[in-house]
Amino acid sequence: MHHLLEKLHKDHRNLEKILDLLTAQLDQFLAGRESDFDLKIELLEYMETYADQGHHPLENVIFTVARPLVGERAELMDRLITQHHELGQLTRIFRNSLENIYQGGVMSRDELEVQGREFIALQRQHLALEEQEAFPMLDEVLTDEHWKTIIEQSPNHDDPVFDKPDKIRFQTLFEYLSRSE
Ligand SMILES: [Fe+2]
């Protein structure tokens, strides 16, 4: 498997960790127990700065290069690129909602629950679709030449949590991750 595909696969496992933490935090908050607002915001911040601005743009380059090579499965490439756009919007909306609720805004807990559960479910479905259907196909059709083109076009974007840790910006998240290890 090409190292970029391996990197994306590793990102997915990290994203699953982030989604697990978010789920646990949402459960606690909705059950009326104490939950960590700073952590929730940092989780969303990570989704915005890495998943939406680094990981997804790289996948978009790969899907675009692979698109003419995969026949009818071009539809899958298009669908995943569209989902990246939609997920990016959902991240922003959900983050705004969390901030609104903590600032005593008008949003109800029920509304937040629907939005949060949907956000997490769609993220997980998207990861599963890429892992199960897209990546095995990409691994088959992309040659070294294609990967060279992809690398030339790919954005250079470090992961601020799992690659180049920014321990100030993601302080709370690092505390949780080190406790869970
Ligand atoms: Fe992905």
From TrEMBL:
Q: Where is the Hemerythrin-like domain?
A: 4-138
Entries under Pfam families matching the protein: Hemerythrin (PF01814)
Q: Which GO terms describe its cellular component?
A: plasma membrane
Query: Sorted alphabetically, which InterPro entries does this protein's record hold?
Result: Hemerythrin-like (IPR012312)
The domain of life for this entry's organism is: Bacteria
Give the PANTHER family listed for this entry: BLL2471 PROTEIN-RELATED, HEMERYTHRIN-LIKE DOMAIN-CONTAINING PROTEIN
| Official protein name in the record | Purine catabolism protein pucG
The organism is Sedimenticola thiotaurini
